[in-house]
UniProtKB/TrEMBL annotation, chains A, B:
Protein species of origin: Morchella conica CCBAS932
Domain External alternative NADH-ubiquinone oxidoreductase-like C-terminal residues, every copy: 447-505
Leader sequence segment: none
Domain FAD/NAD(P)-binding positions: 46-410
Record's protein name: FAD/NAD(P)-binding domain-containing protein
Protein origin, superkingdom: Eukaryota
């Protein structure tokens, strides 16, 4: 298994030079070459980046291509600008304005697939390529071929060697084992989620406007439940309220009195990361707008068309958006478990350290993954394995699982690796790059902000709190200036402007 | 069955005033009211418009709301600006730039559903409301809930009375009974089709770029077949070629030599509606670009990943786009068949006249639907039933099934009805509006145009033929100035500009 079979020269001769061709796996029928990747590698280290979110994509954009050969492994070959997701879910922005292609930087290679496991001794990652789930097309206009991605199985599995690997696979949505959440609720972590939500909201209004819709059915369809009173849930509720009052009430005047939005949370307050006076402001604002807040409420189950709460029983709803925090990524839970040797030398077996609460990978102040010796219980960081973002847990600090943290870690790691490589090149003559000795990673909170609807927001920074219209302006400015590509720097203000003047696009397709 | 049950007053009291509530159907559990629709009707005639394409949507926008109460019945509550579909299928434009909401005009009511049948004696249309096909959501990121529309069955069926009805339901794609077309080929008639095509093209490049993709698989995935050499097939091939050469070859440099586009047609020439010298120009242009044209070729079957032609056998392909003309809409074929009385008076039974070739509804020069007496074989036009667009066949003229024809018919019918209503109001004191006596409909061809890729097009008008860059400019200008809404007048040039400067968005989601 661990022998690497190079393609025989006779097969090679009629294969083209493919930048993305990699190692051959003995048990596969086809064999591949790492030669073209090696050919462009030069004396650079190859950094495998697992994931293309705030951590992985941010790092890939920072790394010096003179010193490193970055290769992203990700099932989702685009970066999602998550703060704009709620806006796209209601049509304030078009979906693609919250996306950047992982391939946007020349020199950064991307392979679409899932990392399955890391061989720390061989320094390789086993990847399963992601393929489209094919179904036959339905009749014209149908959407039979939904194109979700699935693992391609044995035939799409391959091994990629690395000099360094950075784990930035993020986290999944936490459901706390509540039955029916995965089947009947919408998450809001990807653009595909946002699209499903937008479609569902418009569908609810369409169905409710049918002459055959009963009173009861209309009330159900236009009752929207948001589970989780964190910033995502709050911003989505606010954006949904904007959509309903600005656009849908005008287009479906007969339904204007029906829509209801309710935020449920087990905690006694929403927006717990904000100061009390900002939370009070948010609650008062929502109260005026008619958005209900049901704190200290427990959702016991989600069904098709209803939620069950401990406090109020069965509540018929048209749609449920679920935002109650993060669960470990399966790669962290499954791919990094067990004991393994760290090198060819016999020094026993090691296991990746994880935090007890959320099962994230423990990293030190250099964001290096820590491992523990099976027998001696010795703990040490790996020199070439890093973890950043929602899947990492920085020992001793309880950093929130936010885009801000992931982004700062990506920027710090990129800069530090670049600096270390320059030093290495000048002073050490090409030994493996080591980050130790550079300044450690330090998180600096830039504050938190949340949109509350009707052009009002709250922001809380070290410099003070702001609420209302000015906070909204800061909120928009921050997101606009942080949007990555020129395309989105053009499109986002165009959409804001046209949708402000002309209303949101409410076509469901 | 024909008795109309009004809601009892006691039920009514707690129901809101709903603009879209209509007739009650006795066999349903719920009953509805036409009162609110009647309340706003005044002395206007109610015009039921079946369909919201070039015909139906065009007409709804023309009708004077002083004289008429338009109500659109359509399963697709948006108008598709079909000439831009090919552009959206490759990302030159965003999907929504080719859409306008059917609800965009205040005072035009819209019900989402399928017309099932027309009762000519009672002057009602039986409608089945369209509902979302629900499935459970998949795991996060998946697209389990695809949201295609299906008939809601008995519980969503209702009857709508009319003064006049206009049939503009369009046509379906013609498959000539070739097996596998519906299952494995893409049509290009709706925005949902364009989205499926765009997703598929990007998927083909993604899968081909996996290190595990074999030589054979790469050739298959990047081989695109376009069946039908009419303007739609030609423009799609041209746009696809632009996407591949402008964007994808740069993003997947290792795949640059693979993509192949082939147009198949049974006819000896493509673009048969153009003059020979323009067709020659198009063929030479495609030849230079490497787009293959296989005329006099017969596709016998479409499979998952292959087409079978009579001339060349099985050809592995990554995607098939099918554009070989139109088939009758099921409503025309099924909903308007059989014999029926025209009025309460005993004058025997009548049947709707259809053309023998394509089964379209025969209309006279006033676009009135013609019926034939069962026994006497007497043929006469109905005064209050019109048909326009692809589902209508204007007797004696062989008009092409194009947007131009449908649009001119919609504009003519709207203006003529408005004029007749004004005359009626002034001179006839409120008798039913009659179009006879007004100038008849005459089609005036404004010419044909087709985009050929690389900023070149061909246009053919009475004033002469134009080809190349100037024709492209005319093509863009024509489509831009014809785009309906202000939103799209802003967004279309923004997308053209940003995609020209920055490349197309290639994110697949």
């Amino acid at each position: 298994m661990s022998t690497i079979v190079r393609r025989p020269a006779v097969v090679k001769s009629h294969l083209p030079d493919i930048g993305r061709c990699l190692y051959g796996i003995p048990h596969q029928k086809r064999s591949f070459t790492i030669e073209s990747l090696n050919a462009t590698k030069g004396d650079r280290e190859r950094i495998l980046i697992l994931g293309s979110g705030w951590g992985g994509f941010g790092l890939a954009n920072k790394l010096s291509l003179k010193d490193y050969q970055p290769l992203i492994i990700t099932p989702r070959t685009y970066f999602v600008f998550t703060p704009l997701l709620a806006s796209t879910a209601v049509g304030t922005l078009e979906f693609r304005t919250a996306m950047e292609s992982s391939r946007s930087r020349d020199g950064v290679e991307v392979v679409r697939g899932w990392a399955e496991s890391i061989d720390f001794a061989k320094k390789t990652v086993m990847v399963e390529g992601a393929l489209e789930k094919r179904r036959s097309n339905n009749s014209p206009g149908g959407e039979g071929q939904d194109g979700a991605l699935v693992g391609g199985g044995e035939n799409s599995r391959f091994e990629v060697p690395f000099d360094k690997v950075v784990i930035g696979v993020g986290a999944y949505s936490q459901t706390f084992g509540v039955p029916g959440v995965k089947e009947h609720a919408f998450f809001l972590k990807d653009v595909a989620d946002a699209r499903k939500i937008r479609k569902r909201i418009l569908e609810c209004f369409e169905e409710a406007s049918l002459p055959t819709a009963s009173e009861e059915r209309k009330k159900q369809l236009l009752n929207f439940a948001v589970i989780g009173g964190g910033p995502t849930g709050v911003e989505f509720s606010a954006e949904l309220h904007d959509l309903v009052t600005d656009d849908l009430s005008r287009l479906y005047p007969s339904l204007a009195s029906y829509p209801k939005i309710t935020i449920y949370d087990v905690a006694p307050r929403i927006l717990s990361m904000f100061d009390g006076n900002l939370t009070n402001y948010a609650e008062r604002h929502f109260h005026r707008q008619g958005i209900q807040i049901k704190t200290s409420h427990h959702v016991l189950a989600v069904e098709d068309g209803a939620i069950i709460t401990k406090e109020e029983g069965r509540i018929p709803v048209g749609g449920v958006v679920w935002n109650t925090g993060l669960a470990p990524n399966p790669f962290i839970a499954q791919g990094l478990k067990g004991k393994f040797p760290l090198a060819a030398e016999e020094d026993g077996e090691w296991g990746v350290e994880k935090d007890e609460k959320a099962g994230r990978v423990v990293v030190d102040n250099y964001l290096r993954v820590k491992v523990k010796h099976e027998e001696t219980s010795q703990v040490k960081p790996l020199e070439d394995v890093f973890a950043i973002g929602d899947c990492a847990w920085l020992e001793g600090k309880d950093l929130p699982a936010t885009a801000q943290v992931a982004n700062q870690q990506a920027v710090w790691l990129g800069r530090t690796l670049n600096k270390a490589a320059r030093k290495n090149r000048k002073e050490l003559g090409g030994a493996p790059v080591r980050v130790v000795g550079e300044p450690e990673f330090k998180y600096r909170s830039l504050g938190v902000m949340a949109y509350l609807g009707s052009w009002k927001a709250i922001t809380q920074t070290d410099q003070g709190d702001v609420k209302g219209r000015l906070a909204w302006l800061m909120w928009r400015t921050a997101y606009f200036t942080k949007s990555v590509s020129w395309r989105n720097k053009v499109l986002i203000p165009v959409y804001w402007f046209t949708n402000w003047i002309l209303g949101r696009d409410i076509n469901r397709f």
